[in-house]
Structure formats: structure tokens, C-alpha cells
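Problem: given the chain below (219 residues), write out its structure.
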Amino acid sequence: MNRLAVFDCDGTLVDSQANICRAMEECFAAAKLDPPSRNDIRRIVGLSLVPAIARLLPQGDARLHEVLAEDYKRAFHAMRHNGGLDPEPLYDGIAEAIETLDATGWLLGVATGKSDRGLALILAHHGLTHRFVTLQTADRHPSKPHPAMLELAMAEAGAAPETTVMIGDTSFDMAMARAAGAHALGVAWGYHTPHELMEAGAHSIADHASALTRHLEVL
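Solution.
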């Protein structure tokens, strides 16, 4: 079986919190609602959009959550169209880690709460599209921590749970990995704390991207 390393995107590959927070604030403002705190918004990064908004506004009904999600998409699109997006840089050492894993025979994938379009744009911007053999997004799957994204990634890559690792910064990523029977590798530079990642089932935590290959030696 092939060895497969699947990365989360926001908070793991790129630091996108500024744009996510701004778009969320704008969609709440459009509905004349007080926006969540930025800390609360960072807490839901990684979930698909409607479940994320439902966590931020549990008192709202399903229809309101859908309306806010559409307004969020419009706000993000407007920011991108008007050149108003903040930079979404790769975390330090990520490009080198991806190159090393690719060169040593790992197949690479992404499983993210982003849309297909959003993921394609960010990978193209950083010149990484060609590195990944499988891309799973919220457009085609239930939200994390449901294992569907990871299960299809393994099927497309010809990998088994025991030869697959999910690399992510949130408890949702770790729970998804566990649900799929894969190895759960947390990263310390994202939006949930290492303690939360361990509580959610992480097998280990990488404190820097340069440590990822060492943590993957167990597979």
C-alpha cells in the first residue's frame, strides 16, 4: 500500500485567519448581528461553513445559518475580487517539508473545510498544486470530523488506514483521523492548542514543520 500524508489547509499549510475572521465579521454585520470574537472564529476554522456558523450562533435556526454562509461566501469573493485579501502565507518550513515528503515517496493530499475553488486558488498561489494527488473539500463531503474526506483520499491514493497520516491543527482533524483509522499527527502552530489535539486523539504533535518527517518515520 502507498504511504499517504493528508494535510489540513487553514492553520496547517497556510495562516488564513485574518481573511476568515474578516469575512465572518462582515456576514454577521450584514444580518445586523453582533460578530463573534476573533478567538471564537479561530476555534471553528476547519469545519465546513454551515456547521461552523451554527457553532458560532447556536441560537439561530438552520435557515439563518444558510443565509450567513452565503453572505460569508459573498464577502470572501468580494475581498478577493477587489484585491482586499490579506496575505495567506505558508507556515515556516511547510514548503520544504512538502518537498522532502514528495521526494521520499510519500503521496500527498489535502482535506479541508475550504471549497474546491478556494483550495485551488491557495495551492496555485503557492505553486503547490502539482504536489498533491488527492484534494478533498467541503463541497463534496460532510464536515469534519466525519471521516468521508479521508476515506476517499485513501481510496484515490491507493493507501490503507495504517499507511495514512492526517496532519492538522484542530481537534476536528484529529477526530477525523481516528474515525478513519489513520494516524493522527497534530501541529502546534495552528488554531487549537497541543493539549486539545492530544485530547482529541493525536498520536503525536509536531512543534515545527521541519519535524514532520521525523514524526512520520513511525509509518
